């Protein structure tokens, strides 16, 4: 190593960017992987809610179709009594509404639990809190579908409303 010139400070023997300790790099990688696993879990909850939406939409649509077909058959005089079929159609719509309601409730409870756990891990310094949990568009669609299902069931049962 060269001797410093007069009036110049001696060079610092420690490197500017020390190499990270292997355990520090491993902890950092683990924290990032844990943060990413929260995102994967959140997206998995979205897919579960979408499955509930698909099933409830099928039930609501099938129930409404049965109701409309037998109502039209009764109107044309082809079927004398369509009460049982109408009740079955209304029941399918109500089962679809209950299913989407349960799916929404499960999704909200799961997301609150996941956010709470994530916050605890952030406070403990075990994960980084850079990623956000945005409002779920799937949840918004589920709520709108539930409202439409309730309106359809009310319309079918009381013969009034937007679907009557």
Descriptive overview:
With 164 residues, the chain is mainly α. It is 71% helix and 0% strand. 19% of the residues are buried. The protein is rod-shaped and about 115 Å long. The chain is built from 3 helices and no strands. The protein has one domain. The longest helix is centred in the N-terminal third of the chain and has 54 residues. The protein starts with 21 loop residues before the first helix and ends in a 6-residue tail after the last helix.
Write the layout of secondary structure elements.
Blueprint: H1 22-75, H2 83-123, H3 137-158
Overall number of structural domains: 1
DSSP strand (E) fraction? under 5%
| Number of DSSP E strands | 0
| Estimated structural class | mainly alpha
The helical percent reads over 70%
Q: Which word captures the global form?
A: rod-shaped
Low-confidence stretches: 17-23
Keywords:
164 residues, 3 helices, rod-shaped, mainly alpha, single chain, 0% strand
Summarize the structure.
The chain is built from three helices and no strands.
